[in-house]
Amino acid sequence: MNDGNDKLRLELAAATRILARANLVGMFGHVSVLTEDPDTYLVCPGAGARKDRCRSTDVLALSLDAEFEPGRPLELYMHSEVHRLKPHLKSLIHVHSPALVALAAMAEVPSDLLMLHASFWPERMPIWDEVGLVRDRDAAQRLIGILGDEAIALLRWHGAVIVGETLQEAVFRALLAEEHASQVVTALSHGRPLAPVPAGIDRKSLYADVLSPRTHTMHWEYAKTFVEVPGDARGRS
Ligand SMILES: [Zn+2]
Known about the structure:
37% of the residues lie in helices and 13% in strands. The protein has 7 helices and 7 strands. The site of zinc ion has 7 residues, from loops.
């Protein structure tokens, strides 16, 4: 499709495959990226599609006002509304991955930081606690309000949303968020005293130091090599 988004379609398809390879998206879960036109975003296909085989031709281009239709992600409004309300965030990823779902069911979600590479982890985790999916625009706007300025929010009994100022950042954060959640769940299970990153450490500074934009690009180029598909270019610039 010649709409000026060819390169971004390749990148969104590669992002979908990277997330699928890590079991972050599959039957459920989806990823979007805002285009240079602030009324249009790209999103991977919905629940019936094999995310691990996603190609650039499978990527959907939707306006912010587009409604759900079969073939689109059921909860697509979380994407349209983050792109409408927070256009500086270019990408949102929704996952139903096991460790984040486990954390999302805890009455009190620990704020301990156990990995330097997860320093985007909120000091107080935003939690969506409505019993149900995010199936309309109003619900999505409430979710984005709860997210605030954080990189991640949990959805009780359901999963998480992770955002980034670039697609590459969001993908890297999503992988690291599930890894960190897994570490937190493990730590709670073994019950031994923890040595988390000290409370006085500024996480934003730590994030800038440990996970600079250069590392996002490095990770992106590295991760893409594992998910190349015949007939789809690698999305290099
Ligand atoms: Zn969901």
